[in-house]
Amino acid sequence: MNKFMYRLEDWMEVGGTKKDIVLLVIGGISLILSLLDSRLKFIPLPFDIAWVAIIFCGIPIILEAIIGLVTRFDIKADVLVSLALIASVCIHEYFAAGEVAFIMQLGALLEDLTVARARAGIEKLVHLTPQTARVIKDGNEKVIPSEQVKVDDLIRVLPGETIPVDGVITSGQTSINQAVMTGESLPVDKTVGDEVSSGTVNQFGAFEMKATKVGKDSSIQRMIRLVQSADADKAKIVGLADKWATWIVVIALSAATLTWIFTGEIIRAVTILVVFCPCALVLATPTAIMAAIGNATKHGFLVREGDALERLSKVTKITFDKTGTLTYGEPRVTAVKSVSEYTEEDVYRLAASAEKLSEHPLGKAIVKSYGKDIPLPADFHMEPGEGVTAKVNDIIVRAGNEKMIRNAGLDLPTSMDITRYLDQGSTVIYVGADRKITGYIVLSDTLREEAGEMIQKTKAIGIIPVLLTGDNEQAAGHIAEKLGIEIFTANCMPEDKLKEIGDLQNSGNNVCMIGDGINDAPALKKANVGIAMGRIGSDIAVDAADIALVDDEIKELPHLLALSKKMMTTIKINLTFSMVLNFLAITFAITGLLGPVIGALVHNAGSVAVIINSALLLKWRKESW
Q1: Which domain holds residue 143?
Q2: Are 29 and 52 found together in one domain?
Q3: I want to staple 530 with a disulfide (CB 3.0 to 4.6 A). Which of 149, 256, 413, 545 is the partner?
Q4: Cα-flanking dihedrals φ and ψ of residue 20, to 5°?
Q5: Minimal CA–CA distance to 502: which of 270, 232, 252?
Q6: Distance of alpha carbon 533 from alpha carbon 552, whole angstroms
Q7: CA distance 152 to 338
Q8: What is the dihedral of CA 255, 257, 261, 266, to 10 degrees?
Q9: For residue 437, is it within any domain?
Q10: CA-closest candidate to residue 385, choices 196, 517, 184
Q11: In CATH, what number is assigned to the domain containing residue 540?
Q12: Is 327 in contact with 522 (CB distance < 8 Å)?
């Protein structure tokens, strides 16, 4: 019997939302025709056309109630609806039965639409894992599946390739894009003895490495496991009507039975069952959520989890990733300084000209930031992990890091400004002309213009901002102070962000996480609500989040937070109204002043009122801050 019920349950799920909409349209048309025919008698059928609504909308409800009772002994609102529907049919009140079924199916459809989920994130993260590795044995290179790599194997990684396993560089120099693990936009120079992680990308320069962590122990595999498990304890919110269903069924049956016993009128008992149906209760939450989602969409938010706004309204702390979220996520020139007779413009131009043929992200950033026409350099040469050398207008120009300048035998400039820039997490590129230092260029990931105002408005709502970043302590402190964020944690790897959010939750906080990188995916899953940057953010981060900020306009975040609280107020008003209406309708049903058909119409009017009140959220915006 149970096996049959489970198969029936599976069958009922086939077809999805489109099937439900078709059934609702057919049921709605049949009810309209039934109402008109009761007055005009223009339909030549041997049965009431409302039977169409009863069959198409009511049978699925009855089957769902039976399945829940038999397989799980689960009493939900559909049990009471089924009783009212069957009782109405028994006394030939077909329109009342059809209308109750129609309203309940409408509520179920709205709820299904709001809680639909997308689960592609894990698959994309798995696909990010390198499939092959170039293993060197006995001097010969052989390409094998990455899962066959063993600890201490010697691996060669070519420019542009993703590193297959964790390891240590044994020969060669390069720059590694570590955004997948740390979220930081600036590449990191690596040389012999430095550790590299699986899933990170070799920017240029081939190198060889010895494998240290392979298979399930590698960094990318640990990330996958974090994402898979992080939302295991994120419970779904149960609808109020279902939460109280057992009590509603007991009270409704008791009231209907007692009324029948004392009055002897079964029609009164059936009317009580009809008006006891929690139609407005069922619609109270999903209609408000759908209207709020519509509002959020207009402001650039794609709400991917139906109950995300409900959870967001309870948030007490909001954690921010830095790179790509509070900043633009790409290096830009923020300062140019001269330490010679050359002007700052000369230093900038010489560096941009020397870097014009560079494939290094920092070199490209200098050229892009300069933004003017510059001649192609001659005798261009790149030193991986150091910088570039080129001839610009017969001047030998060097642009690179401290190591390049020292190897060239030049003296580094000493300045408190350089120390300050480095402490803030910026990168300094030294520029030399012929045999002397001319100046230096500072690159950093700049704050979004609206970040400061957004943080202040968020605090005004009563939510405490927290910064979680992979930057060092000094850089994190500088950013936090600039934005007015009092709580921050530096040097965060993915597992560190996960732990920080878990600690906040264990302290009684409801936490919202906002990030953009693959490294943020576990934290986005773990948080009570995850919000991903939709444009700059990785697909995996977006799939891991409950909400995506499509255009990356973080200035709209305070509106979303305020909207979630307004939505909850609307839901509470809807619930209060529906409960009061039910109480009055039950009173009139017991006294015989309300029949089944009028009772169904009253419920219909109550449901319409709830929908209208919810619709006011579509254009709501907080007037002042």
Answers
A1: 129-222
A2: yes
A3: 545
A4: -60, -40
A5: 232
A6: 5
A7: 47
A8: 100
A9: yes
A10: 196
A11: 3.40.50.1000
A12: no
What residues have CB less than 8 Å from 174, skipping those under 6 apart? 159, 189, 190, 202, 203, 204, 205, 206, 207, 384, 385
Handedness of CA 216, 220, 223, 228 (dihedral sign): negative
- At 270 the pLDDT is 76
Domain match, 437 and 343 both: yes
Residue 228 belongs to a domain: no
Domain membership flag for residue 560: no
Residues 6+ apart with CB under 8 A from 139: none
Residue pointed to by tokens 């300045």: 415
One domain, residues 190 and 268:
no
Q: What's the average pLDDT block by block, 10 residues per block, for the chain (625 residues)?
A: 37 52 83 78 78 84 78 67 76 77 72 45 53 89 90 91 91 81 68 87 87 83 56 43 64 82 82 69 76 83 79 95 85 93 94 91 91 88 88 93 90 86 88 92 90 95 93 85 93 88 95 85 89 69 76 88 94 85 80 73 73 87 78
Residue-level pLDDT at 117: 38
**Claim to verify: residue 390 and residue 254 sit in the same structural domain:** no
Given a contact cutoff of 8 angstroms between Cβ atoms, the answer to whether 493 and 522 are in contact is no
Burial class of 234 by CB neighbour count within 10 A (0 to 12, 13 to 18, 19+)? middle
Give how many domains the chain has, as a whole number.
4
Q: Which two tokens mark 9?
A: 């349950």
Residue pair 454/559 in contact (Cβ under 8 Å)? The answer is: no
Write the CATH number for 412.
3.40.1110.10
The strands making up 464-468's β-sheet, listed across from edge to edge, are 301-303, 547-549, 529-533, 511-515, 317-321, 464-468, 487-489
For residues 531 and 463, the answer to whether their CB atoms sit within 8 Å is no
Q: Are residues 268 and 210 in the same domain?
A: no
Task: Please answer whether residues 441 and 428 qualify as being in contact, where contact means their C-beta atoms are separated by less than 8 angstroms.
Answer: yes
Q: Do 261 and 279 fall into the same domain?
A: yes
As annotated, the active-site residues are: 321
> From residue 393, how far is each of 15, 345, 354, 399 by CA, in Å?
70, 15, 10, 15
Residues 218 and 256 placed together within one structural domain of the fold: no
